[in-house]
Amino acid sequence: MGPVSAIVLFAVIWTVVFFIVLPLRLETQGEAGEIVPGTHASSPANFNIKRKAKVTTLWAFPIWVVIAGTILTGAITIRDIDWFERMSTPEVSRD
Q1: What whole-number distance in Å separates Cα of residue 43 and Cα of residue 36?
Q2: How many degrees, rounded to 5, is the angle at CA 57 between CA 25 and CA 2?
Q3: In the beta sheet, which residues pair with residue 28?
Q4: What is the Cα–Cα distance from 16 to 22, expressed in whole angstroms?
Q5: Which strand (E) or helix (H) includes residue 18?
Q6: pLDDT single digits (tens) 49-85
Q7: CA dihedral in degrees (32, 23, 8, 87; nearest 10)?
Q8: By C-alpha distance, which of 17, 11, 6 is closest to 70?
């Protein structure tokens, strides 16, 4: 895995974890009792994006380390998940 692949893998993992973290500890305007005119009652009352980004990074980095380590060590290869035998085996030249 090259450096660009590692960065792309981290970005994908970070994004997925971010979407998981977004609704955690969410207090809506309806729950707080202070609905701003023109917004829905389900809009966040205190949306702390900076804290959610930090939490996301703290969770995404160890997940990335595990996945990148698995890829780099070769513990699981693409042939291990070829359940339908669609990938051909590498040809051995007999010259």
Answers
A1: 9
A2: 150
A3: 44
A4: 10
A5: helix 3-21
A6: 999 999 999 999 999 999 999 989 988 877 888 888 7
A7: -170
A8: 6
With contact defined as beta carbons under 8 Å apart, do 45 and 27 qualify? yes
- 20-29, 52-61, 84-93: range with lowest mean pLDDT: 84-93
pTM: 0.75
Tell me which amino acid residue 36 is.
Answer: V
**Both tokens assigned to 34:** 């202070």
Beta strands in 8-83 (DSSP E): none
Distances (CA, A) of 95 to 88, 90, 92: 20, 15, 9
Q: How far apart are CA 9 and CA 69, in angstroms?
A: 12
Alpha-carbon distance of 88 to 4, in angstroms, equals 27
Pairwise CA distance, residues 77 & 79, whole Å:
5
Q: How far apart are CA 37 and CA 19, in angstroms?
A: 27
Hey, which residues does 44 pair with through a beta bridge?
A: 28
